[in-house]
Specification:
By secondary structure, the chain is α/β, with parallel strands linked by helices. The protein is built from 11 helices and 9 strands.
Length: about 300
């Protein structure tokens, strides 16, 4: 599209400058909520910055998958959410809007803090029953309380397992490295799932990730699988714009290799959460978040159509 593309794109606030959502098979949806964070707020502004960063990706074919998601994709805009409400009211609003969208589309959600994944899994459960889960994160998100409250952005994985929304043996966590008591950090493993810590993945990239990819593929099999990617899975060098950064994380190359090689799994939805633009530098975080979502979408669209 050449230089004219930028004038066109700058007028759009939609992911990859896609059209408004009508009957496209894939939908991007923003969830501008950060009321359940532990540390620094700001992820409510994630969706708009990821969309803006995505504009540079909409002008050609993905170099590995050879497709563009543009004509397959609509942007539903941001969810309408109650402001300053109790978390459960926000979650009810997320769940009902997600349910309606999932009726018609394969959805990718842009967070928002990680507490939104629980209502997304509740909505997904109505469509698919319990699903496999691939969870990129620096944190286990299996704490049993949120500083005295029952729920927050660090409890949703525990709650999802307790509610039977995900299959524990087909739950895979990748990139964990934060401090925390052992019972929380290893909860998924104790339930029969797989944890690949950031330390486990040190020094592995490209072909070095092959054994890890084989292990994940074998465990998940053909079960419908949800992907949730907390941007803090990456090292702050690659994604500084997040509320709870943890040094020693994955590189963007490691994450993209994993997403590319796991694309054949039976994915039924994705979210990318915890992008907090106020702490970003040089738009590193919004750029890599847009690339992650683009890679997921291209990987799915390159496969035979599947809802
Ligand atoms: Mn998280």
């Amino acid at each position: 599209m050449g230089i004219g593309h930028f004038a066109y794109a700058s007028n759009s606030n939609r992911f990859l400058a896609s059209a408004a959502l009508t009957n496209q098979p894939y939908a991007v949806v923003g969830i501008p909520f950060d009321g359940a964070v532990t540390n620094r707020p700001g992820a409510r502004f994630g969706p708009q910055e990821i969309r803006r960063a995505s504009l540079m990706l909409c002008d050609g074919l993905h170099p590995l998958f050879g497709v563009s998601p543009l004509t397959h994709l609509g942007d539903a805009g941001d969810m309408a959410l109650p402001n300053a409400s109790a978390l459960e009211l926000v979650r009810e609003a997320v769940e009902s809007q997600a349910t309606a969208l999932m009726d018609k589309h394969h959805c990718v959600f842009l967070g928002g803090d990680h507490s939104v994944t629980l209502p997304l899994l509740r909505a997904l459960h109505r469509h698919h029953g319990a699903v496999a889960l691939i969870h990129f994160d620096a944190h286990c998100d299996t704490w049993v309380d949120h500083f005295g409250e029952p729920s927050g952005h660090g409890t949703w994985t525990y709650e999802a397992i307790q509610e039977g929304l995900v299959i524990p043996a087909k739950t895979v966590q990748i990139g964990l490295r934060s401090s925390g008591e052992r019972a929380a950090r290893e909860y998924v493993q104790d339930q029969g799932g797989l944890i690949l810590t950031a330390r486990d993945l040190r020094g592995r990239d490209g072909q070095g990730l092959a054994p890890v990819i084989a292990q994940i593929r074998e465990r998940v099999g053909n079960t419908p699988c949800y992907l949730t990617l907390d941007i803090d899975c990456m090292d702050p060098a690659f994604a500084p714009g997040t509320g709870t950064p943890e040094p020693g994380g994955l590189s963007s190359s490691q994450v993209l290799t994993l997403l590319e090689e796991l694309a054949p799994l039976h994915f039924v939805g994705m979210d990318c959460v915890e992008v907090a633009p106020a702490y970003d530098h040089a738009e590193l975080t919004s750029n890599v978040a847009a690339s992650v979502v683009w890679t997921y979408l291209c990987g799915q669209i390159a496969k035979p159509a599947r809802m």
